[in-house]
Amino acid sequence: MSRDVLRSSCGRKALHLGLMVLAATLVACSKSNQYHPPPPPTVVVSAPLSMPVTDYLQATGTVAASKTVDLVARVEGYLRSIDFQDGSLVKQGQLLFVIEPEPYEAKLASQKAQLLNAQTEYDRQLRMIKENATSQANVDKWLSQRDQARAAVTLATINLGYTHVKAPFSGRIGRHLVDIGNLVGSAGSTKLATLDQVVPAFVYFSVNERDVLRIRSAAMAAGKPIKATAPRVPVYLGLQTEEGYPHEGTLDFASTGVDTGSGTLQLRAEVPNSEVLFLPGLFARVRVPLGAPRTMLAVPDRVVSNDQVGSYVLTVNAEHRVVQQRIETGPLTNGMRAVTSGLEPASSVVIDGLQSAVPGNVVSVTERPLTVPVVRGGGS
After folding, report:
1. Domains, the chain
2. DSSP labels for 94-149?
3. Mean pLDDT of all residues belonging to the chain
4. Looking at residue 19, what is its pLDDT?
């Protein structure tokens, strides 16, 4: 074989080998670039929770004192002393103010002396008339003077009592409005301070006409029709900075009718307020149960969404596809929203991974049962 032929044969073999290597490389690259779809996202699902749910009426009310009085100076004189700390709690009968009593003590002593004189003379006239030593007219005159002197003593005693201003009931007193040394009562009654009874406290709130009818319907359904007096039913309350309704009171007053101007009915709750948390003027959230608890399906309120059509939740069907399920909602109890229609006890509701649950898409499912929340103060 000549050198040229050998060189040509080797070149063809090298070319063939190179083509085989290139083909193998292309096949390998084709296999490594093959598309693999990502696994479906994972969501957590749970069946709706069957739990007792109470229908509530909710409103916002205003705290007021159960009793309030303006303490005034009913007699004229200089203010002698102030016997309390501004804003403190005082007891019934506690001395609060003293107006100089000396002029009224002197007046009472004078009136008592006149009474004694009139009584003595009247007694003498009675003895004398038995001996025909005086006339009946004199007896009647001294009887009248004796009675007038008695009335004067009573009035002087009352006025002396007005010099010591005492608390008519236990409560919280505001700041004093007149300083020691000022003349009070010279031009009518002088306001000295205001006393509020805050234990218990009242919370006034209003409900609209529709809620009034709901209350009546609930009462009729429970076999307890509303009578002229307000029913003594529990009321749950919470202040603006508190969670839920941790305080319990009693509904003790309802107005006689619906206000035609506002279309509302005023109600009142009495709160024990032993810790004096409810101060007059504060706003309070009010929740009134409309009946006994009913067993209903419920889901976490955070999984309920709303659009222009209404409320819905995301569920997963038997094919592991996400479904937008329309529902009708009921009361909220401790973060759980009651569902009146749209769900079955075996429905798989998405409770976690909502951002990955797109209606129509397939998802991977992890099940986690819901638990009954602890109800505190009539729910949240």
Report:
1. 43-53+294-367 (2.40.420.20), 56-64+198-289 (2.40.30.170), 69-196 (2.40.50.100)
2. -EEEEE--HHHHHHHHHHHHHHHHHHHHHHHHHHHHHTT-S-HHHHHHHHHHHHHH
3. 86
4. 54
